[in-house]
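Supplementary Note 3. Input sequence used for the single-chain structure prediction.
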Amino acid sequence: MGKSSDSVREPPGAPAPAASRPVFISYASHDAGPAQKVCSALEAAGFPCWIAPRDVTPGTLYAEGIVRALDESRVLVLILSKEAVASAHVGKELERATSKRHPVIALRTDRSSLTPAFEYFLNESQWIDAGADTDGAIGKLVEAVGRHLAPGSAAVSTQAPQVFPVKGKATMPRRVWGIAAALFVLGLVTAYFLAGRLHFQSPATIAVEDKSIAVLPFVDMSEKHDQEYFSDGLAEELIDVLTRVPNLRVPARTSSFSFKGKPTTVGEIARALGVTHVLEGSVRKAGDHMRITAQLVRADNGFHLWSQTYDRDVRDIFVVQDDIAQAVGEQLKITLLGSNSMAPRETISTEAHNLYLQARYLTDRDSAADLDQAVLLYQQALALAPNYAPARAWLAFCHVRRVGQGLDTNGAGFTKTTTAARRAIAIDPQLPEPYTMLAIAHLQYDRDWKAAAEELAKVIALDPNNALGQQSLGHLNIASGRMSDALTHFRRAVDGDPLNLLHSKFLGRALHYVGHPTESASLLRHAIELNAQFPGLHYELGRALLQLGDSQAALDAFEAEADPAWRSFGLPLGYFVTHRDQEARAALAALVAKSAGSEFQVAETFAFFGETDKSFEWLDRARTLHDPGIIWSRRDPLLAAIIGDPRYGAFLQQLGMPPVPKDD
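The predicted structure, written as discrete structure tokens, is reproduced below.
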């Protein structure tokens, strides 16, 4: 549904217990205002409502609460708008309600065209056009709900006055409806992957595909508990192998490994990652002997589809990895994928692989210190295994992120990135990540948008669901001015790796760039709940709160930022909007004093302070010094004061940014 925790106010009176709320209100986040008015009117008339996020029980998953409430309700009230039609979550709620034979009454707020899916589910339902008289329309909606909830009323009624059914559909036999429903569900899944229209609320609400699997870290059951890195390496290898299976969705390592050591059930993990299947296992080492057990579980019913135990000498452990990967792949081909096959992987020494895993862990933390340590570990792994392509690819990513942290922006980072990425491609041309690194380098350093697009086309050809590739496409579209496409790609990055907070951070930023600060704040707060120390999350939240006009909350967010660099970007803004002028000036001076690699943030701050000439001076520095943040210049809310200045258009031309499309 795309709702946020601060988008709906409590209506008067204490909420009724979940089981006694006969009306479920479905809406997109954009329609929170009308949804609240409808909720208040219905409850004032004596019809208790279930509405998210108000009625989601703390500590439960959104998806579970929504399904339970839908099943227990008797009527679904839909706020029907362009945003609702585009919302994957609203579509699922509508589908669930109709499958339970609940009547659907819609308040239509605009004249946007309905998709075939919405026409199908609304065929025997009702809508009320809000028009200019919103209060009158809500009154009619309350009357219609009352008719459906009156004692002795039919399960589905179309007799309410001045309430109009969707036109143009003839009644079809039950069998035809069943076929249409099956085709619709198939079409909905296909459309999701083609268009990336998921409205992100939290990992609990991700759409689930049947051809999907999460690989969990294998449990180290050795007596000395000294095989953790090997256990992690086995899962890492399986993820890498399974991502090569066409049409199989495999969440990235960052998300799958986030549950390590936590008391979480397989079902909860599957719901959080949006997968149908989970692969789990254990490793037990005794002397030179190792026993590895792997099992494939269907998460929705807990059935074990396949399991196998491998007893091997520790010296041929990578053969064991191949055995497991091939066995799981064969099982998946039989049950899910037809005749798809996987590409073989090169054997790498255990020591090199363990170093690589340690480096990946540090890379995901994304702080400057962790990235520096990760570089050293990747280099140690490559000293042992020079042809270890994934290690070279992620070494390139480390250099990319160091540039993103304001380090090596003078060209050194670009050289290190491209050198490592091209070596990785020479070793393994089928690995998608190094092409992504080349694309990011083009975006960050030479601003060659065409070259970046060409590299990303290779990524998508190899792996259409590659989360890092989707994130990079988001950045490319930000630079190109295609904000709607950028949002689509950032959402798909989050879907592909939902617990990777770097993806969430960029999606949060893009949302407040396009004027959705409430959704941005909700997403960022959820990310902060997962890891409050992740660099930049509080800073981005503060920017969303600035757009919402909550100056003190914005300052509080900036002050809570754990990373010193990101905190230094936010404090001048927070002090300025709370009229602490002396502190704002001091914070700006401190930012200028340590501006190397952060010239763009200095330019943003001067623009926000109203100092136009200074802002353009620093924008030019950012351009000449290759500050990577400059690709976010377009539609930057902090630059709003200078966008009308002719120098701003000239600046975009100097960057080589294409004109903003008329339809975006």
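The radius of gyration is 27 Å. The mean pLDDT is 78.
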